[in-house]
Amino acid sequence: LKYSRFMAGGGKRRGLSKSCALLIVIAGIERYAFKGVASNLVTYLTDVVKMSNSRAATTVNTWSGFTFMLPLFSAPFADSYRERFFTILASSSLYFVGLVGLTLTAFAGSRSTTTTISIFFLYTSLSLVALGLGVLNPSLQAFGADQLDHDLGHDHEQDQEPSSENKEVKSDRKSQFFQWWYFGVCAGSLLGVTVMAYIQDTFGWVLGFAIPTGSMLLLIFLFLCGCGVYVYADQGSHLKSRPFQRIFDTIKGVVTRRSKITLENNHDLNAMELELQGKPLCNCSNTEATTTTTTTNTSTKSLAGDESSKTGFSSLKTIKLLLRLLPIWTMLLMFAVIFEQPATFFTKQGMAMKRNIGPNFKIPPATLQSTITLSIILLMPLYDKVLIPMAKKISKNEKGITVMTRMGIGMFISIIAIVIAALVERKRLKISKEMKTSPNTTEPLSIFWLLPQYILLGISDIFTVVGMQEFFYSEVPVRMRAMGFALYTSVFGVGSFVSAALISVIESYTKSRGGKHNWFADDMSEARLDNYDWLLALTSAISFFMYIVICKYFKSSSDEDEDKCDETS
């Protein structure tokens, strides 16, 4: 990839560039707008739209699923067909229009006693938000990765491996980028959850939806202000820079039995081998590789007329690379299902608990989600400054702990969190039943009993979510980077669908046994959310043990590169 810069840069910097810092701020603003709507949406659906608990939770999960799944389908266009700058601008504008519609829906609902029109516009607005966000997220993250690559000094035309002396430094810089990116996201989420939940509960939903709309307008303005400092990647029109087109053509050729690898001579074979060396599937750094890379441009041009040969040979490699990530991706789904609970049943759980602080103030249940973000912000420096240095000394690994280990630790902590949630819910139900028999002597359980499960989810977030970002970033080819981020977000998308399906199946089964057995009854004193939490704990434990087994046999692309380097040395 060739890079052009509108603003001259200085020498090598140890910190992040201006463009990276600006995009981190923009990502934080986007999270503020999204969390300002999503964190308390279940309350809006139950209290204003008058949905049942199960239907509201299913609606939120389904919407979240589409929101997180859309990047999987929009990533090919972000990778292959559209300049990322204009993709970000268009998708953020669509996002803004959806929030405007959502605000108008709340305004119409506040002036009308009927909800039919409000529900129609609600779903329409949420769909626009999901569509805009689904395109915006992978494009924005990939655009940020372009800025990072420029700072690291990668040569995308030759994909040369950095020297061994700089490898650790560049690895640390990459980790630093992801840490600060996620820190910005968490800061925006914290403000969105705390401030917006209070405004929505205190001043109403019109203002509560109008403020996120204004923040998206600010996002568009700031993004346009950064035109002079961004790095722009020229993806070109050659098929080589369209990896998804190669994948689609290969699959089509296999189905129609017309995909044949035709090598006219040894010159074509050498050109293909050089093309594969130019991909991040093998970044070995040795004298021979450096010498042969100088002939890449000439060899590739001679092969341009034989698209079927190049497509059949390299696309199968790319498909295989994506399929090998599928087992890890699948085992992360239950982690995503657990993370759907704070915005749905944890919030409804808090509505049935004692929320008073003083005689006049009540804690909005959705604001407890801020403890997840707050624990991330407070404990992230502890992770970097204390845990990682200790792990480096113990394991003698340059990164302290591997990405796979990091994700596994987070998965284990999330299981502990959902077990605690089940125990707290069982205690709440016990007190609720005692209140029915002796209301004057028993008080509801305090909402602060929910804090441990939220804090543990925040700690698990530090390990697993940041690890997922770095894992998928590192395991996909550079030209498919938006797809790597889409794989990461799709974990939460499919997890949302799994959560919605579980709720529907369980409700259908428990309802058939009688109203008192319904786990998701609207009367929170009759609901059995503790049973649902135990089910999630069991299925998550199974996924965790399977993840451990898969990790023993999984070999990362960086490990394969080192093995190949050893073979050629």
Short description:
By secondary structure, the chain is mostly helical. The protein is built from 21 helices and four strands. Helices cover 72% and strands 2% of the residues.
Fold and architecture overview:
The strands form two sheets. The chain has a two-stranded antiparallel ribbon. A two-stranded antiparallel sheet has the order 3-4. It is globular and about 70 Å long. It is mostly helical and 569 residues long. The protein is built from 21 helices and four strands. The model is unreliable at 1-13, 154-159, 235-244, 258-313 and 562-569 (pLDDT under 50). This is Protein NRT1/ PTR FAMILY 5.8. It is a multi-pass membrane protein. It comes from Brassica napus (Rape). Its main location: membrane. It is found in: Membrane.
